[in-house]
Amino acid sequence: MGKRAEPGAATTTAVVVAPEAGWRGQGWVVGGGAVVLGGVLAFHRLVPNRPGRIGSLIESFLPWGGVLVVVLLVVALVRRSAVALVALLLPVGVWVDTFGGLLLPGEPSGGRELIVVQHNVSDENRDPAGTARALIRSGADLVALEELVDPQVGVYEKALAGAYPHHVVRGTVGLWSKHPLSGEQVVDIKPPSIAEEWSRGVRAVVHSPYGDAAAYVAHLPSVRVGVGGLSSQRRDESAALLGRAVAAEGVGPLILLGDLNGVVEDRGLRPLTSQLEVAESGFAFSFPAAFPVARIDQVMARSATVGRIRTLPATGSDHLPVVARVTLR
Q1: 103, 291, 73, 258: which is closest to 171 by C-alpha?
Q2: 268 with 236: CB under 8 angstroms?
Q3: Which of 17, 24, 125, 270 is most exposed by smallest CB count within 10 Å?
Q4: The pTM is what?
Q5: SS3 letters for 183-235?
Q6: How far apart (Å, rounded) are the C-alpha atoms in residues 180 and 172?
Q7: Is the model's pLDDT at 17 over the cut of 80?
Q8: What is the pLDDT of residues 47-102, one digit of tens each?
Q9: Which residues, 6+ apart, have CB-to-CB distance to 215 below 8 Å?
Q10: Cα 272 to chain center, whole Å?
C-alpha cells in the first residue's frame, strides 16, 4: 500500500502551461498593435494637435510607419500567428495606398518641362563655391536657395552667373534661372511674433520656352521637437501667409520651391498642400544630410505636374539638395 501523507505536510502541484497558449497570446498582442498602427496611418488627421502638436509630430514621420509594419511582420512570422498576419493586412494596405505610389518611377515627361532644384545651402556652409558647382551639374533650369548670408551670397552669385544669367535675391532666399525673370518682389511671410528684420520669401515670373510661370521661393520658420512635443506655431503662421499669397497669384502655372520645415503630410502645411500638387513619386528625404529621415525641402506646383523628386549628393550643407521635373500644362 502507498504511504499516506501525514497531516500538515506540504503538498505541491505542478502546473504545466502549453507553450502554444503563450505564443497565441503574443500573436493577439502583435495583431492589436497592427490594428492600432493601421488606424494611425489611415486616420492621422483625427489625432488632436494639442497638446504639443502631437498630430503634426506623428505626420512628420508617417512614412516610417512602413518600418514598423515590417517589424510586426517579422514578429508575426516568428510567432507563426495567423491572427497577427491577418491583422497586418490593414496597415500594409493603408501604407501602400498612401505611400506606395512614391516607389514607382513616375510618368514619362510629355515635354514642356522645367528641371528645378531646391536647396537650403546652410548659413554655415564652408564651401559655397563647391556647392554652387554641384548645383550647376544638375542641369536645372531653376535653382532655389535658402540661408543666403554675407559673404556667401556673393560667392553664389559669382559661381552661378555663367550657367544662370538671371537671378533675384531678397533677404536670405534667392532664385537663379536660365530663363529671363520679371516681377521680382518680396513675399511677406514673417510671423507676427517675430519683431526683428526677417525676409524669407521671394516671387518672380519665369519666362520659359513653354510660357510664363510664377516661381516662389520660401523658407518657413524652423520647428523643434522637445519634451513638450512639436514647436511649430511660427512655421504654421508663415505657411498660412504663404498660402494666401499663392492663392492670390494671377499667373497661371506656379512653382513653389522651399525649405518648408515640414513634410507634405504635416497638417501645418495644409494652407499650401490644399491648393498645390506635390511630387508624384520619390521620397527624397533631405534632412539631416548625415542621416536623412524626412523631406522638408519641397517642390509644389499649380497648373503643373511635379514628377519624380530625388535627392542630389551632399554638399557643404546640413540639407541635401532635391531635384524634380515640373511639367507645365
Answers
A1: 258
A2: yes
A3: 17
A4: 0.87
A5: EEEECCCCCCCCCCCCCCEEEEEEEECCEEEEEEEEECCCCEEECCEEECHHH
A6: 21
A7: no
A8: 988 878 899 999 999 999 999 999 999 999 998 899 999 999 999 999 999 999 89
A9: 142, 144, 175, 177, 203, 204, 205, 206, 254, 255, 257
A10: 13
